[in-house]
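ingest -> validate -> predict -> emit
validate: passed (alphabet ok, no gaps, 149 aa)
predict: started
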Amino acid sequence: MEVILREEIEKLGRRGDVVKVASGYARNFLLPKRLAVAATESNKKIVEQEKQAHLRRDAKEVADAQELAKMMANVSVTISQKAGENDQLFGSVTAGDIAASLEKQGYTIDRKKVHLDEPIKQLGEFKAAVRLHRDVSVDVPVHVVREEA
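emit:
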């Protein structure tokens, strides 16, 4: 069965692509969740209009994200944590902690957009990637210091 995708679906295609899928997959998953529509001529025209609107919206989002990235270029985060011997932290610094620290500085960033390879468990300086958009990300230096008693 041929369908037109209304949203990007991993390992299947992008928005507006005409793809051939199993009829059961289309009937039971894609169509009820409004992720795709049947590939008819009228639907192709409608989806093309939606695609153009989406491209305009996406271009605006990219521009906004790039502007925010320029503002965040000089931002650094300092987090104080309790630490034991050998600069080992009691607990760890997570993406949520970094997002909360950014919010205190006036940047509202969802914790899901802050990417750490693994939680920080040592004192020191680290880099956290903040994905503002699919195409725009900025590295934020994270300084983890010992909390004063």
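The mean pLDDT is 89.
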